[in-house]
Every structure is written in C-alpha cells, then in structure tokens.
Amino acid sequence: MPIYVSLVRFTQHGLSTMKDQGIERAEMVKKNAHALGGKLLQAYYCLGEYDVVAVWDFPDNRTAMKAAVLNASLGHIRITTMPAVPREEWKKILQESLGKRK
Q1: What DSSP state is assigned to residue 40?
Q2: What are phi and psi of 11, to 5 degrees?
Q3: Global pTM?
Q4: At 56, which CATH number?
C-alpha cells in the first residue's frame, strides 16, 4: 500500500482536554483510519512546529484524505497529510526520469 506522512498540530481544544481525553483520542484516530482501510505504521510525538508525525499505509489518496478529514473533524488536531515515496523507489524514479549516471 502507498505510504503517507501526516504532520499534526494540536488545537487549543486538544491541548486543554489532553489530560482527560488525549489517549482515548489518539486511539480513535488510529481506529478511524483502520475503519477506512488504513494502518498506522508509526507515530512520533515531537517538539517544535508539529506535535506529531505519523506514518500510514492507505490504499489511495482518496482514503488518506477521508481519514484526515474525519480525524480533523474531531476538533483536537489539524492535519497535513502527504504521499511519501521510499528512498529506493525515489532512486528508481530518478533513474527513469533523468537516466542513469555513469
């Protein structure tokens, strides 16, 4: 399945209710994606501009978009999701596009 990366920021509501609902909501995000055919591969909680970086498997862009909209509609996060290409696949794309280096 294609890989997607989500950059997540907590909303003010998400931060103010983190103590009571944080873990439950994190599980809900994972379950919502699973219900659509996606799978959370890894999530990293971060310092800085983004609060979470999540790596997903989704069948296609449409499903990834549905999951992002569904999870953002919960009100505790803002999500930017983008397709990602593994390094080896990227190298093949470069070789196909630009030709092999000699």
Answers
A1: E
A2: -80, 170
A3: 0.86
A4: 3.30.70.920
Residue with tokens 């970086």: 53
Full domain range(s) for residue 77: 3-98
pLDDT, one tens digit per residue, over 21-51 is 889 999 999 999 999 999 999 999 999 999 9
Task: For residue 17, give the 3-state DSSP assignment.
Answer: coil
Q: Give the C-alpha separation, 83 to 6, whole Å.
A: 9
Is the pLDDT at 59 greater than 70, yes or no? Answer: yes
Domains held by the chain: number = 1
Within 8 A by CB and 6+ apart from 39, the residues are 1, 33, 56, 57
Amino acid, single-letter form, for residue 49: E
Torsion angle in degrees (nearest 10) through CA of 87, 90, 96, 97: -140
